[in-house]
Amino acid sequence: MFPKTKILATLGPASSAPHRLEAMLRAGASAFRFNFSHGSHEDHAERFKLVREVAEKVGRPIAIVSDLQGPKLRVGKLVDGELQLSYGENYEARLGEAADAGVIPIPHPELFAALQVGDEVMMNDGAFRFTVQEAGEERMVMRCDVPGKLTNNKGINIPGRKLPLAALTEKDRKDLAFALEQGTDYVALSFVQTAEDLREARRLMGDNPAKLIAKIEKPGAMAELEEIIAETDCLMVARGDLGVELPLEDVPRAQRKIIRMARAAGKPVIVATQMLESMIESPTPTRAEASDTAAAAYLGADAVMLSAETAVGRHPESAIAIMNRILAAVAKDEGAATEIAAAAEKSEPGTDAEVIAASAAWAAEQAGAAAILAATLSGGTAYAVARNRPSMPVLAITPNPVSARQLALTWGVHPIPVEKDSSFEDLAKNAARVAQDKLDVADDARIVLIAGQPSGVRGGTNTMKLIKVGSE
């Protein structure tokens, strides 16, 4: 059994060989991220196939997250491919993919329409900064405040301005259709600004069972966080672009707020970007990176994500193994449960199923139970239990392979694919067997089972049973 906080690892050139995938799973990865900003559909199709094959070999349900690129603003093609920027100098920017020497081409009319004199413009993840001196629909003049060598296709960020950009580009729509066809478990929507962005994605997804992740990386999304949480299945604290557009000192507070609100709503939450950044090259992370990873776990995040560390880094499986060790150390900390509980907003159960789940967590603690077993079809029962962050393992027993894979990203939940039981009595007997097989519990140990009767009804969790393993 791996630590309660899960690891989402990004696949790329350094980590797509079958032996690498297997090593990463055995090191502690619970899910893989496919970054649709890079690679062709042919590349991703091969990875889908390999992940499913290796997961079957390892014998664990593994989630696949398809991360859409989103409407990335970028610089066009500079003359000679670069422009040396000088402090305090004014630079002209023009609408288009290319421009004359000394001029910055920007192929985004929305940006010119939105910017006003005095606005700040950032390029290359904030490495270069400008202040708008003259604004216009096809031309503007910017003063360089932080200089350097600007090159082609660098990203652009506009702090403080909400641009009229759809969260789904034409490329994203094609990538979404492809990912759903391949059987992705999650779709991550980039640069979400409003709840309507998520509703549009839902319309395109139709009745596909894939779950939707809202990536919070725009300050505007923070202002509509409650509405966004209501429309999504899962959240990601995407600290890359969020850290560029928000003042540096506000990022930790934003991270805590997103995690706190997601947990209160019972929605899984992932912390991403620069978790073990130095391990792209180094065989070990910095102490600060280890502390950052642990901090996310102490806040009760469901998962932490590795990006370039595993996609292009030199030590992909080592990054996962070390992250796993850090998360395991948090899980062993006697004070962790108190900190994790304190990091969440108090919220009352809103449905009968949530009441049963909360009662199961309480009963398991009082009885000293070895595990909580959540019988679930859609996964909802297991999510409801995980929301309470119990100290013992949560085994989600489900006949639904899609739910099993999706639950691999949920805090403390170990999904176990099973055959559907014909009666509650059979379910109880099989639950005891599963606990013995997976946890090696003693014959006189107790487990708590929750389920819905009749079975197969979404949101129908209404039964809890305290079982003594080994008894008839």
Name the descriptors.
single chain; 472 residues; M1 Pyruvate Kinase, Domain 3; Pyruvate Kinase, Chain: A, domain 1; 3 domains; six-stranded mixed beta sheet; 21 strands; 22% strand
Residue runs with pLDDT of under 50 for 5 or more positions? none
Q: What is the third-level CATH name, the topology of the largest domain? A: TIM Barrel
Shape: elongated
From the alpha carbons, calculate the radius of gyration and give it in angstroms: 24 Å
What is the strand tally?
A: 21
Terminal Cα span: 27 Å
Number of separate helices: 17
Structural class: alpha/beta
User: Which oligomerization state do the chains in this entry correspond to?
Assistant: single chain
Q: Report the sheet-strand fraction.
A: 15-25%
| CATH architecture tag of the largest domain | Alpha-Beta Barrel
> In the CATH hierarchy, what is the superfamily of the largest domain?
Phosphoenolpyruvate-binding domains
Description:
With 472 residues, this protein is α/β, with parallel strands linked by helices. The chain is built from 17 helices and 21 strands. The protein has an eight-stranded parallel β-barrel with strand order 1-2-3-12-13-14-15-16, surrounded by seven helices. A six-stranded mixed sheet has the order 6-5-9-8-7-11. Strands 19-18-17-20-21 form a five-stranded mixed sheet, with helices on both faces. Helix 1 packs across helix 2 (41-58) and helix 10 crosses helix 12. It starts with 5 loop residues before the first strand and ends with a strand.
